[in-house]
Amino acid sequence: MTYAENILKYYSNISIPQQLPEGVEVLYPFDDSEVSAILNTFYNKYFNDSQKRTFLIGINPGRFGGGSTGIPFTDPIRLKEELDIENSFDPKPELSSRFIYQMINAIGGPEVFYKNFYFTSVSPLGFVKDGKNLNYYDIPALQEALEEYIVEEMKKQLEFGAKDIAFSLGMGKNIAYLKKLNARHKLFKEIVPLPHPRWIMQYRLKRLDEFVQEYSTKLTRTID
């Protein structure tokens, strides 16, 4: 099976975590027919091969990015303007998606980038509480409830074909959790931290070009 076939099979059967803390809801876009069509278009376009890829591991999808379109770090605007995939989603921008596609273009554009890299997250499904995005680590009880789920879902994705070195998109709680998880389960040989795209866009926008260069330098070292 190609990378695309494995990914599409995975998302069509993705598990939904159970027994979550009260008030926590799961973002599950994959039962939407438009999302399904877009996933097929995107992954068959960029992942129609069997080449191993470097995993870039975010926190969990947000409402206006992967939680909406089904494609990690890709909001409806980037979906149309950068990937030329028409869609009828509410064209709300996501800060992380803006940074990611500037970085992708610096590396050589979507075709070059997606041939070598695969976006996922610690939790492949996102969460909301009281209508707001929720990170898996924001509530200790949520993080604890998710651990077995997180490990199982990551192992399923590793079967697509993963290189030994992965990157954490997040230098604080995300990399700390990933390193603990990796020490127990030996998922990767090494996980390298990178500053989270949203943090860059929200707090270090004046240094945007510097961070794009940091990503580009570190990621291109993994390209064969």
From TrEMBL:
<dbReference type="InterPro" id="IPR005122">
    <property type="entry name" value="Uracil-DNA_glycosylase-like"/>
</dbReference>
<dbReference type="InterPro" id="IPR032579">
    <property type="entry name" value="Phe_SMUG2-like"/>
</dbReference>
<dbReference type="InterPro" id="IPR036895">
    <property type="entry name" value="Uracil-DNA_glycosylase-like_sf"/>
</dbReference>
<protein>
    <submittedName>
        <fullName>DUF4918 family protein</fullName>
    </submittedName>
</protein>
<feature type="domain" description="Uracil-DNA glycosylase-like">
    <location>
        <begin position="45"/>
        <end position="217"/>
    </location>
</feature>
<dbReference type="Pfam" id="PF03167">
    <property type="entry name" value="UDG"/>
</dbReference>
